[in-house]
From TrEMBL, chains A, B:
Native source species: Microdochium trichocladiopsis
Name of the protein: alcohol dehydrogenase (NADP(+))
Family: Belongs to the zinc-containing alcohol dehydrogenase family.
The Alcohol dehydrogenase-like C-terminal domain, residue ranges: 193-318
PROSITE patterns registered for this protein in UniProt: ADH_ZINC (PS00059)
Any matching Pfam family: ADH_zinc_N
InterPro entries: ADH-like_C (IPR013149), ADH-like_N (IPR013154), ADH_Zn_CS (IPR002328), CAD-like (IPR047109), GroES-like_sf (IPR011032), NAD(P)-bd_dom_sf (IPR036291)
Amino acid sequence: MPEYDQFTGFQVKSPETWTTFHKQKFDAKPFADYDVEIKIECCGVCSSDVHTINGGWGSQHFNDGLSVGHEIVGRALRVGPKVTLIKEGQRVGVGAQSWSCLECRQCKNDNETYCAHQRDTYGAEWPEYPGIISQGGYSSHVRTHEHWVFPIPDELPSHIAAPMLCAGITSYSPLVRNGAGPGKKVGIVGLGGLGHFGVLFGAALGAETWVISRSRSKEEDAKKMGAAGLLATSEKGWNEPHKMTFDLIISTSNNFGEGFDLAAYLSLLDVHGKFVSVGMPEDSTLKISPQQLNGSGCLIGASHLGSRREMLDMFKLAAEKKLHSWVVEVPISEENLSKTLKDLHDNSGAVKYRYCMVDYDKAFGA
Amino acid sequence: MPEYDQFTGFQVKSPETWTTFHKQKFDAKPFADYDVEIKIECCGVCSSDVHTINGGWGSQHFNDGLSVGHEIVGRALRVGPKVTLIKEGQRVGVGAQSWSCLECRQCKNDNETYCAHQRDTYGAEWPEYPGIISQGGYSSHVRTHEHWVFPIPDELPSHIAAPMLCAGITSYSPLVRNGAGPGKKVGIVGLGGLGHFGVLFGAALGAETWVISRSRSKEEDAKKMGAAGLLATSEKGWNEPHKMTFDLIISTSNNFGEGFDLAAYLSLLDVHGKFVSVGMPEDSTLKISPQQLNGSGCLIGASHLGSRREMLDMFKLAAEKKLHSWVVEVPISEENLSKTLKDLHDNSGAVKYRYCMVDYDKAFGA
């Protein structure tokens, strides 16, 4: 009899074999007083999954195998005795973060994603259970502290809600924290998984939202999502008519190297406008001279996920405005995970605009 | 008879001979309806003067010679027929900017330093008078549009007020624009001309203001200026006790290359804290990965001078709080300008904390 309860997941054994998934059992963290145990229905596919399993973000805890996936929607099977935020049977979601101290100034100030002790939904050792590694949503179940479990509004189908739990909140948080709304002009660099939420939420919040993309190939989609227009950086003088008119640019770019003309993007910003990166490149550095920032007093920053409060607000907005993620559903299996993650690695720009693994009952039983 | 009125200045003829000053006449811009003609009393010495005359910031308009100096205090000799902001005989100052369009959104919004058409007090062609180059304060007189002429409060001696017109406002503007005040913790990187104003104004505004310096050699001075303390970056673990506690860091550093550990500075910032550079390096680039910004969602930016409104507010604060610049007075002459600017170039850290050229009457007549 195992020391721990066990769940089943589609796991990768090492970065060297990251395209091979093994359906196998793993030790679950012990069920604790504030935990919610969730039977998973579906899980969105995030580039973080690739960066983690291929070792691009550095070494990870693999042990016998690691399940990734952190855009999880499922049903609360049971809740711990101290849980007050979630009810048994409720449809709920879990995103990319599953732990923080909840006691520091950051945590007490709706900034728990910036807690110095924050831990990820997968690949992180649970502080209370050394040796037990958090496992993501390509699994049958997940156990998560209620603070990182979010009720899903009835208006949103599970596969539509799932990608909002990482890609959605990652775009939503910097928009609201930087005042995106009526009278503001917002640019979204890159129309992929993150970017399409930038447009959906930017427009829903009332900001004049523009897509900034290499070509015009996604212009029609952008407009359907609510964009005011698209700027194609491959066109000469693309930035000229819009210089110093943007209040905020959210960059989803993963590559700040060769060909990324930061100065051209910054030229779009109005006085003290902000360029906020939400992409997480494996190895890419922004190079700026103070002179480039000086002409408009603009700022360059980054943003990491969003708070519980923002997650609830985001779902409320999505439900009220009937915002639907653009999702490609893929039945979960060893083969399909391999194919999907390879695809995302090789050609992420072709996804329109988020994969979501579904059909969990077939893989794990009802 | 010359086509233009002429003033006398201490001019440099080319970047190759930047340490040689020539006392000579130059063409003044024609006196216009909104102009104030100022007989100069003194002028602070700014690193910009060096960067300009030695070519470090690129090519400049030298013509027969260029007078630099943009921390100018003097007496309004006469005012143009449309001038309403300045009275004849008033003691006034001129800073580093002397022109902008005054019609664009930036100009109309107290952001005239970010006007796309802004021009410097020296070395810039006057838009209305092609071929006539603006000349700075190492001269007998200056003619400036009233928007860039500021009454000096009686409480402030001229040589104390002068350095506030560039170094002062450069530090003051980002402090007030980023909320420095009671309950806020502010860091000032580098205790030089700019930095000492960062401390004086940061403390006067009510912020807990720390100096961040290589060594402790200026700690006593820092405290006299109002600093809460000094962090010495040469000490191991210097940033540890202060991690994620600063709301704002104003960097006066001119060198972001080897030895400048940006990540360590950023580690000091609280969630969405800002690192604002006011230094203007000749050739230095900040390198950041989004991951470095991501842990606190902090922002990196720059700031350029300050608006007329801020200039007036700054002088009011300085007068009320009896803030005195720390100034070393130097009688103006060819030899002394050469020595002073070479000194600033070679060993700017040794200046305590601003040179100001004085004794103009001896050089130019009463």
